[in-house]
Amino acid sequence: MKLSVLIPVFNEEESARELLERVLTVPVDKEVVVVDDCSTDKTWEVLSSVQDARVRIFRHEVNQGKGTGIRTALSHATGDMVIIQDADLEYDPNDYPKLLDPVLQGKSEVVYGVRDLSSQKALFRLGNQFLTALTNLLYGARISDMETCYKLMPRQVMLSLNLQPSRFQIEPEITAKLLRRGYHIYEVPIWYKPRKEKKLNPWKDGLPAVWTLVKYRFGQA
């Protein structure tokens, strides 16, 4: 079973190389698809210096947001399964085998990695908890971490979701569409260390996330 690791990147010159090194050492059959979302620092130079046949790198000429970066990476993926990976070292790629295990055991097609949010700043933690609670309320679900980056599923399933260009609304969009279509989301605990400074804005990105959940609950998904 081949895993496609989808990595949207924007201005991560300090962590991009280390992240790729961590991903490449994980003992699973994989390919790595990186999309630089028009970084304004030296991210592109760092990525371009990586010489490994398992890594393919693409670049947006105009910044289009995380969601669009994931869509671009997905369009180039060839693996059986896909997983989203942020480039900021908040998540540990060594959790990939743990996430793949329920799939290999036939327990579920879709697996989410659940974070311990106790070390997050209060505003972000409350925002994450609110969005997860709203998801459960709207969709009759019982998931623990809707906003987690680690969402693993068959490539064909993610392709079928017809994801739309977006920033961070990609997280509720994926979850909403999976739940609307009846997929069971299996959860496993993962390692997580939040960065101090985040690109996500709790107000600028929080309200669109709420609207995304409502839109796909009562509209077409």
CATH hierarchy: architecture: Alpha-Beta Complex
β-strand amount = 15-25%
Please provide the ordered H/E string of secondary-structure elements: EHEHEHEHEHEHHEH
CATH C-level category? Alpha Beta
Number of strands: 7
Question: Terminal Cα separation, in Å?
Answer: 28 Å
Quaternary structure state of the chains depicted: single chain
Strand order of the largest sheet: 3-2-1-4-6-5-7
Description:
It contains 8 helices and 7 strands; from the N terminus they run E-H-E-H-E-H-E-H-E-H-E-H-H-E-H. By secondary structure, the protein is α/β, with parallel strands linked by helices. The chain is globular, with a radius of gyration of 16 Å. Helix 5 packs parallel to helix 8 and helix 7 (170-180) packs parallel to helix 8. Strand 2, helix 2 and strand 3 form a beta-alpha-beta unit. The protein has one domain: Spore Coat Polysaccharide Biosynthesis Protein SpsA, Chain A, CATH 3.90.550.10. The relative contact order is 0.17. A 7-stranded mixed sheet has the order 3-2-1-4-6-5-7, sandwiched between helices.
